[in-house]
Specification:
Two copies of one chain form a homodimer. By secondary structure, chain A is α+β, with helices and mostly antiparallel strands. Chain A has seven helices and ten strands. Chain A binds a DNA duplex (30 and 30 nucleotides) through helix 7.
Chain lengths: 214, 214
DNA sequence: AATATATTGTTGCAATTGCAACGTTTTAAA
DNA sequence: TTTAAAACGTTGCAATTGCAACAATATATT
């Protein structure tokens, strides 16, 4: 997975951040960054911590749009963050570098090798983000909870080339990701277990239905 | 909306395409490009025509992942097109320029101004694609058909700053986009009409519930 | 270690939804 | 212009789902 500063040396990284007039900020856990990024057109780079981009709809339902860990990036542009329905919430103490998006696009000093490298890394990361979002769309366009789960399992097992699927956080979060009711998901997982298609050991799910792994 | 050759003159465009060893191909309507792009790592630029990226699942359900018109781009990288479940289908006679993705990322001649401009355009387009995908995710994460429709209407009306929402293709395609059954959508649209929330005139939907427009 | 908080499993029930099957209308092709 | 194909509207019905509520674990905090 490409990171935003890959192939850029520490001295060049400093020069780059100076060139782009980057600013570093720190936030306590459970802070909202909405007022901070509102009306701005910025690229953020998480240097430490964990942040969620969420959407709160009229009924107060919160959808996790994206999760951001160390070295992840986000853009007010790409996440509709200028919209008031969106918010950035730090789930841990977090450090973020902010860069004015226009500085990236319209930099005059753009012939520097590290600047070109930065743009390349950005392209790679954006491409990867699109791939991830396509993946989620594939999954949640499935019509039944069962098919959503199976699609999710298939993608995850292909990724790791294994019949084991590990739930990275909680089943509650998984239900969120799949855009289904948690209890209904729990019920369907039980069905899949009873039909002998899967086995669940804590956060590890074992796929028993795929010929490839039997 | 940024296009891939924005701010690049025709002569420079020619130079750029030569530099990137681009190849132009033409395809008849209703062709599958799967075998063509399989195992490749390419960026495609539609110069003429209309193409759909679709996914066919185990039950033969087809999901439209993306629609591509003139000057749109696609990448085997970002669309999991290397996966056999995905396909590119031309819906009209189509002309496509193919560029080896690695040539874009690892070009040695990368200090040329038009090359930098190309990368900037690419970043803008990718950013826009992410925004679009986030939008669709917001919509289809809604739990009921009614809420999916209303969310779709809200986003569309905000975009055009108007109480009119125009269905660009067909209601069948809209149901696809929203990942719901067409007849069930039809039923819910009828309910919305009967409750006086909307009015439908052909492909034009009039929103009657939003204070902003009344 | 004790307490508070979050996660998980479960289930009844009402509401929503997909599906299938029509006939009708519109659009495209021959 | 005639014919074929696609899109649309409708509805009964069975299946799926969300919701609410609760107890039981597990995790985090003091």
């Amino acid at each position: 997975m490409t990171k935003i500063f890959d192939f850029i040396s520490s001295p060049n990284k400093r020069k780059l951040l100076y060139l782009l007039q980057a600013h570093r900020f720190t936030f306590n856990k459970d802070s909202s960054l909405q007022s901070f990024v509102k009306n701005e057109n910025i690229l953020g780079i998480i240097t430490k911590g964990y942040v969620q981009i969420i959407k709160v709809d009229a009924n107060d339902n919160r959808t996790i749009i994206e999760e951001l860990f160390e070295e992840d990036i986000f853009g007010t542009n790409m996440s509709s963050l200028k919209n008031k329905d969106y918010d950035l919430i730090t789930k841990e103490d977090t450090e973020i570098i902010f860069i004015d998006y226009d500085k990236i696009i319209n930099n005059e000093d753009n012939n520097k090798a590290f600047y070109v490298q930065f743009q390349k890394n950005l392209i790679e990361i954006l491409t990867e983000k699109i791939r991830e979002k396509n993946e989620r769309i594939e999954i949640i366009t499935q019509k039944t909870i069962r098919n959503k789960l199976l699609e999710y399992f298939n993608i995850a097992s292909k990724k790791n080339n294994s019949k084991f699927v590990y739930i990275s956080s909680t089943f509650t979060d998984l239900a969120d990701y799949l855009a289904i009711d948690r209890s209904a998901m729990s019920r369907e997982l039980k069905n899949l277990k009873e039909e002998g298609l899967i086995e669940i050991k804590g956060k590890k799910i074992i796929l028993l239905y795929n010929d490839k792994w039997i």
